């Protein structure tokens, strides 16, 4: 009964955290516009898979390392910010789809998107709050952690997919190379701007 009572609040929390702008959603918008929704699916499922592992790991003790050792948190912020700036540069300098040659401009793979979650401070904060606030106290801890992490990703799926769909719709309106360059530049700038919120 405790677990069922927590599902509603946990769902509302995940919706509020995953439907709002952030590094993942900005990158999904850019990917949807540049590569289409279907080619962005590995990116979407990579985010979900990476967050599932991260959230479950936090509940099973990984979060204690993050809380007890401030150096780990600082290192994570620096590494995550550096990787985010690299991705921002890749987005900003991506050529329009019709100008790509020799397989350039591939969307993020499942494993790249999954790995990024472990360097994404927002994902850590989201996972820490989720497990601290909504993990049932009774029953098997491992099973509870896996079920809560899985439920959280089910809720997150339509929220983040919406951003990829939004990007796909925008891509249909971009008809000239100049419009594509402006769009990619703006998306790259927004991705880079997320570093400010990570480091502040």
Write out key terms for the chains shown.
single chain, mainly alpha, 200 residues
Descriptive overview:
One of its GO terms (molecular function) is amino acid transmembrane transporter activity. The structure is a single chain. The chain is mainly alpha-helical and 200 residues long. The chain is built from 8 helices and no strands. It has helices at 2-18, 23-35, 37-68, 70-92, 110-117, 121-134, 141-173, 177-199. Helix 1 packs antiparallel against helix 6 (121-134), helix 2 packs across helix 7 and helix 3 (37-68) packs across helix 6 (121-134).
Q: What is the structural class?
A: mainly alpha
Main pleated-sheet profile: none
Average pLDDT taken over every residue: 85
Give the termini separation: 40 Å
Query: What's the Cα radius of gyration?
Result: 18 Å
Count of DSSP-assigned helices: 8
**Percent of residues in beta strands:** under 5%
Quick structural summary:
The protein has 200 residues and is mainly α.
How are the elements arranged and paired?
Blueprint: H1 2-18, H2 23-35, H3 37-68, H4 70-92, H5 110-117, H6 121-134, H7 141-173, H8 177-199
């Amino acid at each position: 009964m405790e677990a069922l009572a927590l599902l509603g609040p946990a769902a509302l929390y995940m919706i509020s955290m995953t439907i709002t702008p952030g590094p993942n959603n900005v990158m999904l918008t850019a990917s949807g516009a540049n590569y289409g929704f279907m080619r962005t699916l590995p990116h979407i499922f990579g985010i979900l898979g990476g967050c599932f592992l991260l959230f479950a790991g936090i509940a099973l003790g990984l979060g204690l390392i993050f809380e007890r050792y401030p150096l780990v948190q600082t290192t994570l912020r620096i590494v995550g910010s550096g990787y985010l700036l690299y991705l921002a540069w890749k987005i900003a300098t991506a050529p329009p789809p019709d100008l790509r040659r020799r397989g350039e401009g591939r969307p993020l793979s499942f494993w790249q998107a999954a790995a990024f979650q472990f360097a994404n401070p927002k994902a850590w904060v989201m996972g820490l709050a989720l497990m601290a606030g909504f993990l049932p106290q009774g029953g098997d801890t491992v099973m509870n952690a896996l079920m809560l992490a899985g439920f959280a990703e089910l809720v997150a799926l339509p929220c983040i997919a919406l951003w990829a769909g939004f990007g796909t719709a925008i891509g249909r309106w971009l008809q000239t190379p100049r419009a594509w360059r402006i769009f990619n530049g703006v998306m790259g700038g927004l991705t880079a701007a997320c570093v400010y919120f990570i480091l502040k």
